[in-house]
Write a structure and sequence with these properties.
Strand content: 25-35%
Strand order of the largest sheet: 2-1-6-5-4-3
Distance between the termini: 98 Å
Structural class: alpha+beta
Largest sheet: 6 strands, antiparallel
Radius of gyration: 32 Å
Order of helices and strands: HEEHHEEEEHEEHHH
Number of strands: 8
Mean pLDDT: 82
Low-confidence stretches: none
Length: 211
């Protein structure tokens, strides 16, 4: 015969459930607080790769509403032809792709995906963190332009310019330096590696420069 729990036992069970619910509520609040305070976009997906939740940062970056994401496949929001994989492992995937914003603007974005699993190691869902690479791409382009300007200045300078190791061996030289030394090109000059002292009228000049 199954005994009926006493009132005291029932009260204890109720209090235990209350504590568990409060712990779940606090964990849920902490989860949302962390996600809403980050500058990175966030997606929570089910095991079917359908979006269940997003954070405010992703709404701001994309110009979309929450309703635009919920229930949609993640593949809908990036151009598959632009995918450039960074790394891939069993539980983590990282790739760059053009994110399709609501206004139609293509945003360079880094997608970092991790797998969620239960106690039996079965996949229960996925999380995506999305980083806007617009400023990084702009900086990279500016660095390329600056390097191009420097290279043109270096190659076309009237002044002789060179870089060498402490041994005196040349690493690079511009056309003016090669011309002054009587070589037809910097490449011909750099091919000479037998005796770096040849480029100095006084061998002591090299030692003095090194010091």
């Amino acid at each position: 015969m199954v005994s009926t729990p006493s009132l005291e036992q029932l009260m204890q069970q109720v209090e235990s459930l209350k504590r568990e619910l409060e712990a779940c509520r606090k964990a849920n609040e902490k989860y949302h607080r962390v996600l809403e305070s980050t500058y990175e976009g966030f997606m929570l997906l089910g095991s079917d790769l359908v979006i269940n939740d997003v954070n405010k940062a992703l709404l701001r970056i994309s110009g979309c509403n929450r309703e635009d994401f919920i229930g949609q496949s993640v593949d809908k929001f990036y151009d598959k032809t632009s995918v450039n994989f960074y790394s891939a492992s069993r539980d983590h995937l990282s790739f760059e792709a053009s994110f399709c914003s609501k206004s139609g603007v293509k945003i360079p974005m880094l997608f970092s995906r991790s797998i969620l699993k239960d106690e039996d190691d079965a996949i229960t869902g996925y999380i995506y963190f999305l980083s806007d690479l617009t400023e990084l791409k702009a900086t990279q382009e500016e660095l390329k332009r600056a390097e191009h300007r420097y290279r043109n200045m270096y190659q076309n300078a009237v002044q002789a310019m060179f870089q060498s190791k402490l041994s005196g061996e040349l690493i690079r030289a511009n056309p003016s330096y090669a011309n002054i030394l009587g070589y037809s090109s910097p490449e011909e000059l750099l091919d000479f590696k037998e005796d770096a002292n040849k480029f100095y009228f006084n061998p002591e000049d090299l030692s003095r420069m090194v010091r």
